[in-house]
Amino acid sequence: MSVNPTEEVRSEETRAVSEGTGSTPVAPPPSAGGEPVLALHGAAVRVGGRTLWSGVDLTVGAGEFTAVLGPNGVGKSTLIKVLLGVLPAAAGEVRVLGGAPGARNSAVGYLPQRRSFDASVRIRGVDVVRLGLDGDRWGIPVPGLGRAKRRAARERVEAVIELVGASAYAHRPIGQCSGGEQQRLLIAQALIRRPQVLLLDEPLDSLDLPNQSAVAALLGRICHQEQVAVVMVAHDVNPILHHLDRVVYIAEGGAVSGTPAEVITSDTLTRLYRTPVEVLRTSDGRLVVVGQPEAPALHNDRHDHGTEGSRAAGI
């Protein structure tokens, strides 16, 4: 497999996040005026002439972990694009770090949806992480110049790899790392510039349950200990439920937000879907949504269209 490492690791949206940022690993200034890290009031978005969702109200502070939930195709990933400034809001107000979306993307870490790296990819994990620091720049350093900067960059790469618990395998080719190991390295890449906000688009997708739990615990620890606001699109809330501070649930063109206990209830989801929905909790604490006839069933595996009628799905 022929790979351009920069293109393989960083999508166009990832580059947009990095534009205008130098490689000096210094912490960004706090958001203006002590405002919330993220604030949406009556936000709506239109794509192709169709309103995907409207009436989104959300306030996220530093060190808060927020999940964006809902069936496939309702615009969960689109919310991330709005926060990045890639897609404008059609109505309402959206502020990121006290300014317009996109204005302070140098203080935003972003991990897009991804596929696993092919086993033939030889770039090392440590180099994938380093791309988050200076992968948007070209050229070879002039010998003897900028030694202090290069040393600081090397130390920052080592520190963030240690932060995500990836030191043991960071020097392996990333194609030889497991899915969970690859995801930790990509999270390190998104964190390397010390962002104030971390936007994650389905980071647990395609991981097995143990790795989902491990990565969820890692994100919860980074969020609360490093005071990074995390907004994560998720297909299943159960692996991250105990780490969450708030939830945004999108369905049927509308949205509700609040704590998990406020949002993931029979009454709230019935009102949102405009069809009877029942939220059950299993003996091990997992949530199950039972809906009729179709809406909540879209939480089932995205590749399994299933059958008609009532179905149950973990959310």
Question: Describe it for me?
Answer:
The chain is an alpha/beta fold and about 325 residues long. It has two domains: about 5-265, 3-Layer(aba) Sandwich (Rossmann fold); about 275-315, no CATH class. It has nine helices and twelve strands. The chain has a six-stranded mixed β-sheet, with helices on both faces. A hairpin with a 2-residue loop joins β8 (about 245-250) and β9 (about 255-260). The chain is globular.
Reading the helices and strands in chain order gives HHEEEHEEHHHEHEEEHHEEE
Strand content: 15-25%
Judging from the principal axes of the Cα atoms, what is the shape? globular
Radius of gyration: 20 Å
Query: Which fold name is given in CATH as the topology of the largest domain?
Result: Rossmann fold
The overall number of domains is 2
Number of helices: 9
In the CATH hierarchy, the architecture of the largest domain is 3-Layer(aba) Sandwich
Q: Give the strand order, joined by hyphens, for the main sheet.
A: 5-6-7-3-8-9
The largest sheet, given as strand count, sense and whether it forms a barrel, is: 6 strands, mixed
CATH homolog superfamily of the largest domain? P-loop containing nucleotide triphosphate hydrolases
Taking pLDDT < 50 over at least 5 consecutive residues as the criterion, the unreliable ranges are 1-33, 292-314
